[in-house]
């Protein structure tokens, strides 16, 4: 019997082509579903709440027929789910073994303080901040002129990040009930040999236990934030161009993550200080699909489908 693979979104307009507005990524999403069919899976997309009769039962699924998506008249039970919901309401604990990624890994990636507790030995000097008194106390370990970074523990897309001198960060507002992380600034101005000359954020994507995609982001002029949402630029990095010292560091992190969380799909965002010292900025469990211009998009698709096939067979 053919295994049922579902790509799940929290909210997505369900129609013949739910990816019609995805521009340069539209064809890659369709390639994902076409390749899934070619490998013997029944491929679906679903959105909204799952059915109360089971954590992997969907009432509003659309089946991919090789050209477009057509609605299923009955509910289906997935054998494996590729979670694209972005929120923390899915998957539930009992759906974890069949979902890429499980809820435990999502919680780790969605809290930078939790990430620091798990892989802090690969990150810049970091401290948890829960209130203004804690911020002032931790800032005592920095010289007033030192650059430091203050981030919301649950922030995304660079929103809310402040990079400034320690003496200026003392004035930062810490809303009650919101956690932050205070980090030593990583000076990436010397770039990465063979990849980029100046400030950067290197993303390395891992799927099915191997590196499958990489790109580098650079901040816009006058900024230190490389997030595309903050105006940064993005360029694919050929995997063979990634320096060996970065690969070695990534493999050590990967071994720890893959062993504990059953080989999820994720990215490691890092920066290189002095051209030779890699430091992790954050982990991401929701990986944006590559664009059709990225050469390794086919590798990404194949590895994700291999992961889903592995979960479907559990």
Tell me what you see in this structure.
This protein has 314 residues and is α+β, with helices and mostly antiparallel strands. The protein is built from seven helices and 17 strands. The model has no long low-confidence stretch (mean pLDDT 91).
Task: Set down the secondary structure blueprint.
Layout: E1 4-9, H1 26-38, E2 42-47, E3 57-58, E4 62-64, E5 69-71, E6 76-77, E7 80-83, E8 99-100, H2 103-109, H3 112-119, E9 126-129, H4 132-139, E10 147-152, E11 162-165, H5 166-169, E12 180-184, E13 201-207, E14 210-218, E15 233-236, H6 244-261, E16 266-273, E17 277-284, H7 297-312
Parallel strand pairs: 1-2, 1-7, 7-8
Antiparallel strand pairs: 2-4, 3-6, 4-5, 9-12, 10-11, 10-12, 13-14, 13-16, 14-15, 16-17
Helix pairs in contact: 1-7
- Estimate the strand proportion: 25-35%
- Distance between the first and last residues' Cα: 15 Å
Element string (H = helix, E = strand)? EHEEEEEEEHHEHEEHEEEEHEEH
Helix content: 10-25%
Discrete helix count = 7
Count all strands and give the number.
17
What value does the average pLDDT take? 91
Class by SSE composition: alpha+beta
Q: Output the CATH class name of the largest domain.
A: Alpha Beta
Give the overall shape: globular
Reported CATH architecture of the largest domain: 2-Layer Sandwich
Task: For this entry, give a set of tags.
6-stranded mixed β-sheet; Dna Ligase, domain 1; 17 strands; single chain; 24% helix; 314 residues; alpha+beta; 5-stranded antiparallel β-sheet; D-amino Acid Aminotransferase, Chain A, domain 1
């Amino acid at each position: 019997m053919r295994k049922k693979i579902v790509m799940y979104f929290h909210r997505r307009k369900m129609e013949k082509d739910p990816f019609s507005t995805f521009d340069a990524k539209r064809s890659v999403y369709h390639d994902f579903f076409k390749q899934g069919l070619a490998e013997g899976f029944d491929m679906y997309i679903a959105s909204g709440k799952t059915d109360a009769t089971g954590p992997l039962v969907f009432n509003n699924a659309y089946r991919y027929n090789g050209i477009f998506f057509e609605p299923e008249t009955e509910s289906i039970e997935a054998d494996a789910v590729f979670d694209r919901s972005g929120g923390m309401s899915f998957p539930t604990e009992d759906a974890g073994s069949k979902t890429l990624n499980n809820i435990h890994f999502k919680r780790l990636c969605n809290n930078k303080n939790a990430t620091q507790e798990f892989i802090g030995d690969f990150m810049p000097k970091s401290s948890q901040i829960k209130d203004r008194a804690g911020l002032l106390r931790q800032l005592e370990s920095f010289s007033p002129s030192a650059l430091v970074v203050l981030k919301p523990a649950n922030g995304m897309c660079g929103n809310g990040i402040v990079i400034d001198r320690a003496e200026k960060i003392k004035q930062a507002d810490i809303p009650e009930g919101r956690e932050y992380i205070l980090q030593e600034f990583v000076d990436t101005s010397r770039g990465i040999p063979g990849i980029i000359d100046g400030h950067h954020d290197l993303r390395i994507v891992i799927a099915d236990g191997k590196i499958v995609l990489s790109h580098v982001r650079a901040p816009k002029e006058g900024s230190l934030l490389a997030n595309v949402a903050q105006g940064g630029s993005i360029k694919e990095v050929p995997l063979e161009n990634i320096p060996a010292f970065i690969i070695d560091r990534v493999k050590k992190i990967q071994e720890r993550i893959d062993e504990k969380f059953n080989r999820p799909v994720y990215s490691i965002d890092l920066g290189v200080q002095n051209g030779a010292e890699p430091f992790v900025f954050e982990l991401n469990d929701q990986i944006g699909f590559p664009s059709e211009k990225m050469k390794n998009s086919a590798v990404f698709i194949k590895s994700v489908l291999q992961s889903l096939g592995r979960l479907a067979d559990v």
